[in-house]
Amino acid sequence: MEAAGGGGGGAPGRARPGQPQTQPQPQPQTQPKGRELFRSQRKESEGSVDCPNLEFEYGDADGHGAELAELYSYTEEPELSLNRRCFEEDFHTQVPDRRWLELDRAQQKAFVMHLLDGLEVVSRDKRLRVARAILYLAQGVFGDCDNEGDVLHWSRHNSFLLYQLGTFSAFLELLNMEIE
Question: What is the rounded CA–CA span in Å between residue 36 and residue 20?
């Protein structure tokens, strides 16, 4: 006969003679979340023999000049000319009979600061012309250069100069103003 309380018999975890012992059911495990899942997968794959460390050499990459040429398509040529014209009109009124390449760093800084002041004028057309002049500087003042190497040099030089003088922040402010 069975003990009182019938059917379940005895304390949990104890088997009654002649009855199979039931195994406790495992608690469902919580799934790892986002980063934890990726970390565990990464740890598993790091030790894997199936995935050896390979060093790639990207042989299909072009030089800087070719990459820049690809950036500007033939349909943008009128824009390049317009940027140049905007720069030269302003530059030659401020610095007559000189070329950008002939200026020392202090003179270049002074002209860039003049351009940055021009971004704050009320007239939208004037701001756009100044923005185009700044873009021409970032494009390497190609009208003053003799070869592609010079254009790349001046593009880099001017880009660093523009960044150091806060042009990036000024353009962000200008974009926010245009959005509103």
Answer: 40
| Block residue for tokens 């199979």 | 20
For the chain, counts of helices (H) and of strands (E): 7, 0
Distances in whole angstroms, Cα of residue 43 to Cα of each of 10, 48, 93, 112: 46, 9, 63, 51
Give tens-digit pLDDT for 107-121.
Answer: 999 999 999 999 999
Based on its alpha-carbon atoms, the radius of gyration of the chain, rounded to whole angstroms, reads 35
> How many Cα atoms occupy the beta-carbon half-sphere of 35 within 13 Å?
0
Tell me the residue length of the chain. Answer: 180
What is the C-alpha to C-alpha distance for residues 139 and 68, in angstroms, rounded to an integer? Answer: 9
Task: Tell me how far apart the alpha carbons of residues 66 and 119 are, in angstroms, rounded to a whole number.
Answer: 32
Q: Cα(167)–Cα(4) distance, rounded to whole angstroms?
A: 88
CA distance linking residue 47 with residue 167, whole number of Å = 47
Q: What is the pTM of this model?
A: 0.63
